[in-house]
Amino acid sequence: ATSLDFMLGVSEAATTKMSLSSVGNLTLTSTDAGTGDGPILDLYRNSASPADGDDIGAIRFSGENNAGTKDTLAGIRVDMDNVVDGAEDVTMRFSIFQNGSSVDALGITASSNTTQVQLGHVGSVAQPSLTFTSELNTGIYIPSGGGRLGFALGGTSGLELSNSLLLQHDT
């Protein structure tokens, strides 16, 4: 297989640090034996006029559907919410394709002194938003009407917490 290699070092002692194969695989190599991070992929947006709401960078995962159309099937995106020096806040979003459309499945937002994790949909008893690997119909969801948090057990409503912290158990 053919590849484009970027090497560092003196002639015979040069080692490959980055390689791009003929099939499009990119490999970054760190030979550092220390405990530091490495290799590091740095996506740097060097804007002359940074502003709140700027898209900082994205990683896209694309593929073709059965019609041969290229679709971005998943992605990771970072947006700058506050660019003030010393008070920078960002949102990181993880998107996936669901029923032919891109949806934000997970968001992580930092603002002031709080960090929030948002799930992309409210879910239901049959398909909770937050599930466990072994049981996809057991998890946490937002019941219709809002103001409550529901816990589904085996596809049935087990427990709901309301905004007044009263417990409701459905049988």
- Major sheet summary line: 5 strands, antiparallel
> Averaging pLDDT over every residue, what do you get?
83
Question: What is the helix content?
Answer: under 10%
Write down the Rg: 23 Å
In terms of DSSP E residues, the strand content is: over 45%
The span between the termini is: 62 Å
**Extended strand count:** 13
Low-confidence stretches: none
Order of helices and strands: EEEEEEEEEEEEE
- Main-sheet strand order equals 4-5-6-7-8
Structural class: mainly beta
If helices are DSSP runs of H or I spanning 4 or more residues, what is the number of helices? 0
- Principal-axes geometry comes out as extended
Structure description:
It is a single chain. The chain is mainly beta. It has a five-stranded antiparallel beta sheet, with no helix packed on it. Helix content is about 0%, strand content about 55%. The radius of gyration is 23 Å and the shape is extended.
Which terms would index this structure?
single chain, 171 residues, mainly beta
How would you briefly describe this protein structure?
The chain has 171 residues and is mainly beta. The protein contains no helices and 13 strands. The strands form three sheets. The chain has a five-stranded antiparallel sheet with strand order 4-5-6-7-8, with no helix packed on it. A five-stranded antiparallel sheet has the order 9-10-11-12-13, with no helix packed on it. Strands 1-2-3 form a three-stranded antiparallel sheet, with no helix packed on it.
